[in-house]
Amino acid sequence: MNLQERLEELKAQGLKAIKDSKKLKEINDIRVKLLGKKGQITEVLRGMRDLPKEERPKIGVMANRVRDELTNAISNRQDEIEIQKVAQKLEAEKIDVTLPGVPVKAGQPHVLSQIIDEIEKLFLGLGFQIVEGPEVEEDHYNFEMLNLPPDHPARDMQDTFYITDKTLMRTQTSPVQARTLEKHDFSKGPLKMISPGKVYRRDTDDATHSHQFHQVEGLVVGENITMANLKGTLQLVAKTIFGEDREIRLRPSYFPFTEPSAEVDVSCFKCGGKGCSVCKQSGWIEVLGAGMVHPNVLKMAGVDPETYGGFAFGLGPDRFAMLKYGVDDIREFYLNDLRFLSQFSQKG
Ligand code: DAH
């Protein structure tokens, strides 16, 4: 076979192999085999040394043309394969935007957060500030500043978890009263605040007890604040949470930090006051504690009880939610069972 025939053969074989190639790697191998330094075409060109001088240009021109043709064919095939690859990828990743979407399951605030949010909204509307206090609290604020000195018997009802002798998990949100009173500048106007948060008691968990639960503390101190202001404010709370038609009544009670103190009942939202199983036939349900701030509490916080006075209250969002929704076990709020929690959808 002479060089001319050899070139024709290489060209035909090469073009066929290029046409049949399916992958970029394959085509690269073909390029190396034909056109590389040790490739077949290069070999032919080298063979020209043995030709008579006059034949060399003809074969040279031919060899160059074959090399160009193969180079072009390789580059075209490479482009084709790349385009095919992209087309395949697009096909594989095709999405049908007209298909119905997969619904996203939206969450919702916890039922206790819902109650607290409602109370916060009400009090923000009344011009109160919302104050937070520490859950790890000093004995000083949790008890002493609230008129419960170290040996006060009322401490027994609020045993808790102690961090040190002087530091404990707060048993009530009332210490935030003392903390805020100490800081308040009365020349700028009365103090009106609520403080929602978690509290702790050394109780064994059962249907009505939880070692951790919630309270919302309320405090108004200024000039000429009366018990009528307290009653009007709590009436609004009862109506907001339990319904427009609710009434409240105050019964005498005892708290060390208020004098007089009251237990506050709301007219039964189930029977409207006639008497039913929810209100134990009394027509009333006890919902919170309140009273007029004890002069000692004001004095200890550096506030003059001759000039300033006010009221305070403490309510339990857990108890509110249990009454409002007929939940018979406080532990449900803390088990994170979606079957329970999703019943309190804000939409429905
Ligand atoms: N701190 C009381 C408790 O945990 C609740 C309470 C009662 C708060 C009367 C008050 C109040 O501010 O005036 O039992």
From TrEMBL:
One of its GO terms (molecular function) is transferase activity. It is an enzyme of class 6 (ligase). It comes from the Bacteria. It is found in: Cytoplasm. Binds 2 magnesium ions per tetramer. Its EC number is 6.1.1.20. Tetramer of two alpha and two beta subunits. NCBIfam families: pheS. Belongs to the class-II aminoacyl-tRNA synthetase family. Phe-tRNA synthetase alpha subunit type 1 subfamily. This is Phenylalanine--tRNA ligase alpha subunit.
